[in-house]
UniProtKB/TrEMBL annotation:
Protein name, entry field: Forkhead box protein J1-B-like
Keywords: DNA-binding, Nucleus, Transcription, Transcription regulation
Organism for this UniProt entry: Gouania willdenowi (Blunt-snouted clingfish)
Bias (Polar residues): 230-241
Annotated stretches, region: Disordered: 230-262
Gene name as annotated: LOC114481688
A GO molecular-function descriptor: RNA polymerase II cis-regulatory region sequence-specific DNA binding
DNA-binding region: 126-220
Main location group: nucleus
SMART domains (UniProt xref): FH
DNA sequence: CGTTGTTTATTGTTGA
DNA sequence: TCAACAATAAACAACG
């Protein structure tokens, strides 16, 4: 049973609100909710979703962040207006504003500002995927059998605003990844090909290391031979201090730095939002974000995942992200929203979610109260009924997840 | 000279 | 806790 220490919850909540307000002041905050910014048409040509929604678990598999990220990429988000599609750009979005299907009466309705994560337009949001994944995506997006490094750079900067404004050292990392990772193969340039450098492509032998563009390989993917030593933890195994100067010529010769400056503060400073993504991924499955997984068994798995991830979270659910279902025109499409804060108190209140739009909660007041009292909060997912029945023919089209929905019954999620 | 590609070192993260 | 991996930084050579 996950227990969230409330003082930390309070602190987290305050931090998130400050971040939100800061973003608003700086003009980079809640992105105007128009399709140009919220939709992921930019990845329209990017086929990434597999028909198998389940990723393998364990080492060598995409992280939860990457999985969620992948889902985001794989789902068009024209319906990123969270509730009712009524807000004009710039307007605050509030959860629970749909008067037709209100939240459970025992849930206190609270306005919850929404903050979007838009990788293409927000320079502060670093995509939670590895460089190998970025390379793979760029390669797939190019639709060419081989691409140049500059093409990869161009695609990344065009599609991830973070890298457009980041220190150029990331390019070095990309090049290094290309060189070191044997999943990528260098293709010599022909004489009549003008560009500098060679081409790169995904080695067919290792193509299965990429699941929908997300690199899932780890242990067996590195060029450990061929003189490459980069991934050997020489610094730890030999502790460097114990290594003679002859054994560490670069250190002695160049007097390299001994401390590492983190120039990518985003991940370092926003771990909470990232971790919340994990929960979002689970909730997404529970509530229909990824309807392809909503069979009973998978639902249970999703719930277990949810419980598991929440147990792993030291912080409360400071922010929840999910794909909102849009049942318009019997099409399910999804847009991502980050929701600010909520958690459950330990009062035994039951929150029954009646639609995908009415999602978990609302207990900011309880959060505050608990914060004062220092009591822990417990969250228990009790019962769930399966959300929309999907046409088994739902499928993938140009990398987008669409699902026909003949009769979308209201999903219910009871939270104790 | 800028780009490309390789290599080494260091530090942070993650999973067993 | 530790090993493996990812990310970052830097140096350097080759090339156009």
């Amino acid at each position: 049973m996950p227990v969230f220490p409330m003082p930390r919850a309070k602190r987290f909540k305050v931090d998130r609100l400050e971040m939100y307000l800061e973003d608003q002041v700086q003009g980079s905050g809640p992105t105007p909710l128009d399709d140009t910014l919220t939709s992921l048409h930019w990845l329209q040509d990017f086929s990434i979703l597999s028909s198998d929604p389940e990723w393998p678990s364990g080492p060598g598999c995409p992280s939860s962040q990457e999985q969620l990220f992948l889902r985001r990429l794989g789902n068009d988000s024209p319906s990123s207006l969270a509730v009712g599609d009524t807000a004009a750009p710039g307007m605050a979005q509030y959860l629970g504003s749909d008067s037709t299907v209100g939240p459970h009466p025992r849930i206190q309705e609270q306005p919850i500002p929404l903050v979007e994560v838009v990788y293409k337009t927000d320079p502060k949001v670093k995509p939670p995927c590895s460089h190998a994944s970025l390379i793979c995506m760029a390669m797939q997006a190019s639709k060419q059998p081989k691409v140049t490094v500059s093409t990869i750079f161009k695609w990344i900067t065009e599609n991830f605003c973070y890298y457009k404004h980041a220190e150029p050292s990331w390019k070095n990392s990309i090049r290094q990844t290309l060189s070191r990772n044997k999943c990528f193969r260098k293709v010599p340039k022909q004489k009549d090909e003008p560009s500098k450098g060679g081409f790169w492509q995904i080695d067919s032998e290792y193509a299965d290391m990429f699941v929908n563009g997300i690199f899932k390989g780890r242990t067996r993917t590195l060029r450990r031979n061929n003189g490459f030593q980069g991934y050997q933890d020489t610094a730890r195994t030999s502790a460097n201090e114990d290594v003679s100067p002859e054994q560490k010529p670069l250190l002695s010769k160049n007097n390299r730095r001994t401390t590492r400056s983190t120039k990518t503060p985003l991940l370092a400073t926003k771990p909470d939002s990232m971790r919340v993504d994990i929960l979002a991924a689970a909730l997404e499955e529970v509530l229909g974000g990824d309807c392809s997984t909503l069979e009973d068994s998978d639902l249970n798995a999703a719930l277990r995942s949810l419980e598991c991830e929440m147990e792993g979270m030291q912080e409360p659910i400071g922010e929840l992200g999910r794909w909102w279902g849009d049942v318009m025109n019997q099409q399910l499409s999804y847009g991502y929203m980050d929701l600010c804060v909520t958690t459950m108190d330990g009062t035994g209140n039951v929150a029954e979610l009646q639609t995908p739009q009415h999602y978990l909660y609302q207990h900011q007041d309880h959060l505050n109260e608990s914060s004062v009292s220092g009591e822990g909060a417990e969250v228990k997912v009790d019962t769930v009924t399966v959300p929309p029945t999907l046409d088994p023919g739902f499928g993938l089209s140009e990398g987008f997840f669409t699902a026909t929905c003949d009769h979308p019954p209201p999903p219910t999620l009871t939270v104790l």
